[in-house]
Amino acid sequence: MDIEQASPFIQLRRQLHQIPEPGFNEHKTQQLILEYLDTLPKDRLYIRTWKTGVLAKIPGNRPQKCIGYRADMDGLPIREQTSCPFPSIHDGYMHACGHDMHMAIALGILTHFVHHRIDDDLVFIFQPAEEGPGGALPMLRSNALREWKPDVIFALHVAPEYPVGTIAIRPGLLFANTSELFIDLYGTGGHAARPHLANDMVIACTQLVQQLQTIVSRNIDPLDATILTIGKMEAGTKQNIIADHARIEGTIRTTSKKSMELIQTRIESLLKGIEAGFNCKTAIDWGCSYCQVYNDAKWTKSFTDFITHQTPYQLIECRESMAGEDFGYFLNEIPGFMFWLGVDTPYGLHHPQLDPSEEAIPVAISSMAKYIAQMGTRKKS
Ligand SMILES: CC(=O)N[C@@H](CCC[C@H](N)C(=O)O)C(=O)O
What we know:
By secondary structure, the protein is an alpha+beta fold. It has 2 domains: about 5-175 and about 290-375, Zn peptidases (Aminopeptidase, 3-Layer(aba) Sandwich), CATH 3.40.630; about 175-290, Alpha-Beta Plaits. Helices cover about 35% and strands about 25% of the residues. It has helices at about 5-20, 25-40, 100-115, 135-140, 145, 200-220, 255-280, 295-310, 325-335, 360-375, and strands at about 45-50, 55-60, 65-70, 120-125, 150-160, 165-170, 170-175, 175-185, 190, 225-235, 240, 245-255, 280-285, 290, 295, 315, 335-340. The strands form 4 sheets. Strands 1-2-4-3-5-17-6-16 form an 8-stranded mixed beta sheet, sandwiched between helices. Strand 1 (about 45-50) and strand 2 (about 55-60) form a beta hairpin. Helix 6 (about 200-220) runs antiparallel to helix 7. The protein is elongated and about 85 Å long. Ligand L5K734KM binds near residues 325, 349 and 350. It is an enzyme of class 3 (hydrolase). This is N-acetyldiaminopimelate deacetylase. Keywords: Amino-acid biosynthesis, Diaminopimelate biosynthesis, Hydrolase, Lysine biosynthesis, Manganese, Metal-binding. GO terms for molecular function: metal ion binding; N-acetyldiaminopimelate deacetylase activity.
């Protein structure tokens, strides 16, 4: 597929880019996808919605399995700073993680199979809320998806650091286990001049942050990559008032489930120590957690063999990423893989200037359409 043939999907990507919406609020996005699907021949397409997500099934000629393809839908609370001529019209929101590209590519692959039917069934999953609170797990548990559950599943993620025409993947772990972290500390406020009558949560909180940083350095096997980042700290109301409340927000990322359990247990122990040491109360909320993205070895090999021998694209065996992706929940139950698609932009994911190259759209549509066609078509006996 060349850039001209991909033009309808580039237009769709631009329309999607303009309307980024937060997780489970992707109403306009859902509407746009449904309106596009409505333009396709109805006899080959069954459509369902689940919350703000969309499911589209293309029945096969003589199905033996169901092949799934997933695209995520939500935008991020980031004010766009690109110079692209089709910027976000939702102030303070941006498709800064490439989900507009993911959806347009999925629509391109879907359209190909509406016109070129294969033996196996196909299900396209447009999933809300990847950036949080996580749409994959509840979608997997929904009746809508349970009845159309694929036997094998694929997805891609744009990769700013690779040139267009590059596909990067690895068998096994691709994305980390993640957990959010929200901790509140409650003490006694008071006058800055009478510290002996108050119980200062600024002090307790800063001590806690220091202690949290010892978990990775002193409790986790150094060969087991792990991150504990506190990205936000809030306390107090005024310079001469002792703070009765402090809050920290962070994220944990691990390459093993065991380390995630260990970190969470250690945090609970440290909080007990802070409560005893500072005579305060604490509350912890783990927010949303994502299970790792673990690529199936057999399917990954079949895809890498295909890319190497049957496409002009460059294949890279990449390292694991410490980012999270709730596609991991799909791969926990269904074999398949996720890969990185080079989109060649100097700014990383979640950056206000992220501007993926649209030339990657035909690369992805053509490679996935050809790969899916091969695996979903049996030789005539
Ligand atoms: C691809 C990507 O950037 N994913 C996000 C997933 C968010 C997980 C959750 N909100 C957390 O912070 O733990 C990422 O930040 O890796």
